[in-house]
Each structure stands twice: as C-alpha cells, then as structure tokens.
Write a structure and sequence with these properties.
- By secondary structure, the chain is an alpha+beta fold.
- It folds into 2 domains: about 100 residues, no CATH class; about 70 residues, no CATH class.
- It contains 5 helices and 5 strands, in the order βββββααααα.
- Strands 2-3-4-1-5 form a 5-stranded mixed β-sheet.
- α3 crosses α5.
- The longest helix has 25 residues.
- It is elongated and about 75 Å long.
- It starts with about 35 loop residues before the first strand and ends with a helix.
C-alpha cells in the first residue's frame, strides 16, 4: 500500500485537544507548565502588574469567555500562560494547585518569574524534556497511527517501520517472528497514546 503522506503539525494556531474540546491542549489542568495568573487578593498592593505588550510577540494567543491563553516564546522553552479574570492595572498572582504535579508547576512559575525580571528563564523541567530516543519513539508511534488509519495491518507496518523483509516472510515464519510482536506492540502503544496516553507526556510521564 502507498506510504501515508506525513505532515508536520500545521494549519492550527494551537495544539487542539484530541478529545474534541475546542480549547488548547495546554490548558493548566492538563499541562502543569501552564502558569495560572489571576488578580491579586486585596492587600497585596506591591504585586507586579504585567504589561502583556512588553512580553510579546506571543507565538499563540487564544481567548474563551473567562480566560486568555498565551504562549510566550523562549529559547530555553516556551512559557504557557492562562490569565483568568485579568483586570487592567491590577497586580497578578500565580495559582499553584496542590496536585501530583505541584513540583512542575513551581518550576514553570520560577522560569516565568526569571523571564519577567529580565533574566534567562533557564531550561524546561527535565521531566518535560524529550530525549532523542523518546522523540524517535513518539515519531514512530505517530507513523504507526498514520498507517493504521490508512488501513495497514501489522505486517505492512512492520515492513515500513521495522524491517522491509517482513513483507516477504512466509506466513508461518511471520506468525512466530519477533518483528510481528514488535509491530503489534507499536500498534498497541500508538493506540494507547491516541486514547489519552498523550496526557502523560504533558505531565512528565
């Protein structure tokens, strides 16, 4: 069968949620590196007001009825912001939910604070960085999904992504081959990634 025509992600201003929600995938409840900013409580008059016009240009901007989502480009790793109920001239506070990824949220706020003070933000948290091996594996899984959606079976996927000779193996050899097991594992892991597993990547898993 013809090889699928793979394309880089494009045509969409932000990474959409594969679950079908018309909101960015990097919303803070899913992606701990998204910093939630809200107006400061009363009494914190010294809290810093952020003039957004001085931070840009932003790689992405998106709004819904209650919040303003922004992606601020940075050579060390982009900053993701969610401004909720912002008030002009009012200082801002960061909300840090006490959840299982609290440590990642602290690192995201710390990186943003360095940037706001004119200092290098530093690298992304190690848990959110992809090693070359992990990146290669994810690309392979995405290619596997492309083939499955194009109607390919395990043998065709194996021949395209693992071993070109798999296509010529006699049926009895193919059935007991390690290549067949690897192809089936690719299909299983690719489907798991599609069916919610992608969320683990956003949370350092």
């Amino acid at each position: 069968m013809p090889r699928p025509n793979w394309r880089a992600a494009g045509g969409c201003a932000f990474a959409p949620d594969p679950d079908g929600h018309d909101i960015p995938l990097w919303r803070p409840e899913v992606f701990p590196s998204t910093v939630i900013l809200v107006p400061t409580p009363e009494g914190f008059d010294g809290a810093r007001h952020i003039d957004l016009s001085t931070l840009g240009p932003f790689a992405v901007e998106w709004r819904d009825a209650s919040s303003h989502h922004l992606v601020l480009a940075d050579s060390g790793g982009d900053h993701y912001l969610c401004l909720a109920q912002a008030q002009p001239g009012r200082g801002l506070a960061a909300i840090l939910p006490l959840d299982a990824v609290f440590d990642l949220r602290i690192e995201a706020v710390t990186r943003l604070y360095r940037r706001l003070r004119g200092r290098p933000a530093g690298p992304l948290p190690r848990a959110l960085e992809l090693t070359p091996q992990r990146r290669a594996r994810l690309i392979q899984l995405l290619h596997t999904l492309d083939f499955r959606f194009a109607g390919a079976g395990p043998r065709e996927i194996a021949a395209a992504l693992l071993d070109a000779e798999a296509q010529a193996l006699p049926a009895i050899e193919w059935k007991s081959s390690a290549t067949r097991r690897k192809a089936n594992r690719l299909i299983r892991d690719a489907q798991g990634l599609m069916n919610g597993g992608y969320r683990k990547l956003l949370r350092g898993g």
